[in-house]
Amino acid sequence: MTTVYIWITIACVLFAAEIMTLGFALLGFALGAAVSAVGAWMGLGTEWQIILFIACSLAFFFGIRPALVRWWKERESRLPKTNAEALIGRTGKVVEDINMDEKTGRVQIDGDNFRAITVDGSRIEAGQHVTVVALDSTILITKLAE
Predict the structure, then answer these.
(1) Which residues are registered as beta bridge partners of 106?
(2) What element of type H or E holds 38?
């Protein structure tokens, strides 16, 4: 019965470590340990417990993990953009000439005023509209809106 507790302890530690790491790297081993705990509880010998552990871990890594990773990436792409990420692709009005030589340039988007530069280093006059293509910390990297 002590091997059941050992496998359960291993499974719990691996589950906890998986929560902290993300990426589903330790989840397969945790599931393998949980299945081995069930095997130990059913009275299987140590060699069968190890075989269960290896088989379940391999089945997870080659069968379930790729589907989980794919699902996770698709989930992230469906999540709404927030904070600064939401500015990429938006159009704003230049309120101060964007001039890389003089290190000036401000763009207003939804009433908020941001420091801005252009992708190609070109000068854009105040009053024109620009599209945000990227961010560099708090500076918007823009191009003339089409």
Answers:
(1) 96, 115
(2) helix 27-41
Residue type, 67: A
Beta bridge partners of 115: 106
Tell me the β-bridge partners of 126: none
**Residue 81 confidence (pLDDT):** 65
Residue whose tokens read 């691996």? 14
Bridge partners of 75, per DSSP, are none
The secondary structure of residue 84, as a DSSP letter, is G
Least Cα distance to 88 among 140, 51, 25 occurs for 140
pLDDT for 88-122, tens place per residue?
888 999 999 999 888 899 999 988 899 999 998 88
Q: What 3-state DSSP class applies to 132?
A: strand
Sequence ranges of the domains in the chain:
2-78, 83-144
CATH 3.40.50.300 at 83-144, yes or no: no
Burial degree of 68 (CB within 10 A; 0-12, 13-18, 19+): middle
**In degrees rounded to 5, what are phi and psi of residue 108?**
-110, 130
